Amino acid sequence: MNSALLLKLLPGLCAGGVYALSALLLKRAFNEGARPGQSLMFSNLMMAALALPFCVYLGPHPHCWLAAGCVVAITFVGQIAGFWGIRLGSVSVMTPMLGLKPLIVAFLASFLAHEALTWNIWAAAALTTCALVFLGASERNNSSQTAFIQAAGAALACCACFALADVLIERWAPQLGVLPFIAYTTLFMGLPALVMLAFQSVQESKQLRLSPVAWKFLLWGCGLTALQTLILVIFIAYIGEATLINITYNTRGLWSLALIALIGRYMGIYEHKISKKALTQRLVGAGGLFAAIVLVLGG
After folding, report:
1. Is 244 exposed, middle or buried (0-12, 13-18, 19+ CB in 10 A)?
2. Are the CB atoms for 270 and 144 separated by under 8 Å?
3. Which is nearest to 100 in space by CA: 78, 72, 119, 76?
4. How far apart, in whole angstroms, are the C-alpha atoms of residue 79 and residue 101?
5. Counted domains in the chain
6. DSSP secondary structure letters along 162-189
7. Where are the alpha helices (DSSP H) in the chain?
8. Mean confidence (pLDDT) of the chain
9. Is the CB of residue 220 less than 8 Å from the CB of residue 25?
10. Residues 78, 82, 88, 93: is their CA dihedral positive or negative?
């Protein structure tokens, strides 16, 4: 087995695991009264805080900070679309639609970043997309057709924005300087959050009043969300391979199922009784994700 390939797989696998744990913590925070908008705001603030050590690489790089600002703007639009999709529909609509990201990244990377993608990478991207559709369909609710179409459209916009941001990082970071680009990109993520914080402080200060339990799970969840984002940004900037990293990152679906089964009840998170049909869909989805990793390794 190629050790260099394994090294490229680790960032996505690690980020996927961290994301799954952060999602579990945020789910408990939401159960305690926290709001999705708060998680977006604090995640971006913590992202900027984690990036403070990179400040030593800031300097007079006008093209770099302009490119980083473009990436941050695209990412923030994707975040807004994602939360809007959840508001219109549900997480069960968002999950399968976000599974399209590896395919969109593959298409964009082949044209914008000039990645030479082999057949097994294309097949793995398609397979992981299908697998997440099965995983998401296992929890689909009975929303109206109009709400489903609107939520699916928002999810697709979210997915496209995140995919474009990943590919632009892969293309621009080596050209403009990896470390300055990472510094500007991660620090700029805090700017929209500061605006949101100021707006909430003036207009909706009551929404910041949460119980100590809610704050604990919210801040830990946001911290881990920021960490997994930083992992993705750093490794896509350094080694490229946005398509490969996104394929392995989608194992977050497997991480989520495993963590819920192992520690969900200790965190006060219980799943409803799973039907045979839903269980079959989850097993098929999990098998598809494993098969995608095997395809990548086999290539």
Report:
1. buried
2. no
3. 78
4. 14
5. 1
6. HHHHHHHHHHHHHHH-HHHHHHHHHHHT
7. 3-31, 36-50, 62-88, 91-98, 101-111, 119-137, 145-176, 178-188, 190-203, 212-239, 242-249, 252-263, 276-298
8. 78
9. yes
10. positive
Contacts of residue 56, defined as CB under 8 A and 6 or more positions apart, other chains included, come to: none
Gyration radius of the chain's alpha carbons: 19
d(CA 124, CA 250): 11
Residue 70: domain span: 3-298
Alpha-carbon span 103 to 112, nearest angstrom = 14
Using one digit for the tens of pLDDT, what is the confidence trace for 6-55? 777 888 889 988 988 888 888 888 888 888 788 888 888 999 898 888 88
Here the tokens at position 4 are 């260099």
In the block, tokens 């970043």 appear at: 113
Q: Per this entry, what is the length of the chain?
A: 299
- The parts of the chain modelled with pLDDT lower than 50 are 272
Per-position DSSP letters for 48-96, written without gaps between them: HHHTGGGGGG--S-HHHHHHHHHHHHHHHHHHHHHHHHHHHS-HHHHHH
Work out the number of other CB atoms within 10 angstroms of the CB of residue 59. 11
The answer to whether 246 and 263 have CB atoms below 8 angstroms apart is: no
Give the pTM. 0.81
Q: Give the model's pLDDT for residue 54.
A: 83
Burial of 53 (0-12, 13-18, 19+ CB in 10 A): exposed
